[in-house]
Amino acid sequence: MRKRYALAGASSRALFMYAKPLSTELKDYAELVGVYDINPIRAKILSEECGGIKVYDSFEKMMQDTRPDATIITTVDRFHHEYIIRTLEAGCDAITEKPMTIDAEKCKAILEAERRTGKKVIVTFNYRFAPYASRIKELIKEGIVGEILSIDFEWILDTVHGASYFRRWHRYMRNSGGLLVHKATHHFDIINWWLDDDPELVFAFGARRFYGPTRKERWVRCLTCPYKKTCEFYWDITKDQFARRFYLEAEKADGYIRDGCVFADDIDIYDTMSVNVRYSKGAFLTYSLIAHSPYEGWRASINGTKGRLEAEEFHSGQRVDEPIQQIRYYNRKGEVITYNIEKPRGPHGGGDERLRRMLFVGDVEDNLGYMAGSWAGAMSILIGVASNISIAEKRPVGIKDLLQ
User: Fold this and answer.
1) What is the pLDDT of residue 348?
2) Crossing angle for the helix pair 80-89 and 59-66, nearest 10 degrees?
3) pTM of the entire structure?
């Protein structure tokens, strides 16, 4: 019997990650029974793209009419907690995009609602499912590095993808918690998962050094900008067929501007960040994130009592098309062992498709603990939440203190 799913939030992520696959290749396993969004135009477009899913202008009405087994939450981050809790209280499980939420109070409210209702929260950390990240987890689990003492992790966003966060709703802390919550929740979760441990203490630095009011030639949005002929960040929303239809033509419903100026003076998230974390078993994490690199990808070095693992992945630039990814292991004998992993196709290192198969079909074995619940969601966002507090108050922040 197919399970029934409702969708809260008609975002592009909702359309391409969930709605389209559920309406096509996964339709024999799951049924998408309704979509709700505060913007009826975007909800209608999503419905049309997916065979005419019923559109609702009331979340409660959708839940009452469709009686889903679970609700998929893909709204703006600051509303995740609201729809998670309302879903749990309606007697359904909640499947939420990362981050689970954006601050400690909302996080505590979700954990309390889950305990109170007995229903379940799933956080869709797709990067756990990427074969490259999974292979690192396997090697750690096999014990080749011994006890992990420290991890150095660098994530770099380029000036296409990275800049997009400064055009969209993400550029305000009140919406996303900044990149240390919205984006880094992926990275912190992977590290927590590799370590099989919880963070304990956080200290961080962060600043806006590249975007925001760093130049005089700025405007409200690209569409009407008088500097469009000279600005290297000009993006013509009218030439992107999907963006024009899904966002530009839907502006009249809620006023959301998708092509905001990346140099606007009201941007308040950071573009350059550095974080130190101590874990409960003693491991240290040194983490950095920038959103203005010439190319995009990440590097990790995992140091243990028996040796060191090094890994790197490229998402843009000259090396993005390399067919083989490598993990290098340096042991205490002076040897280097190289593990080759064929680069998979698909978004997020091939993780999206594997996550969907496990979530909606159940034919992917969960031998490494891929599927994440509310505690994993909490531990990943709270590193970012603690980092934001640390940056603002110039002090270390304990994770347990945030849950008091």
Assistant:
1) 73
2) 40
3) 0.96
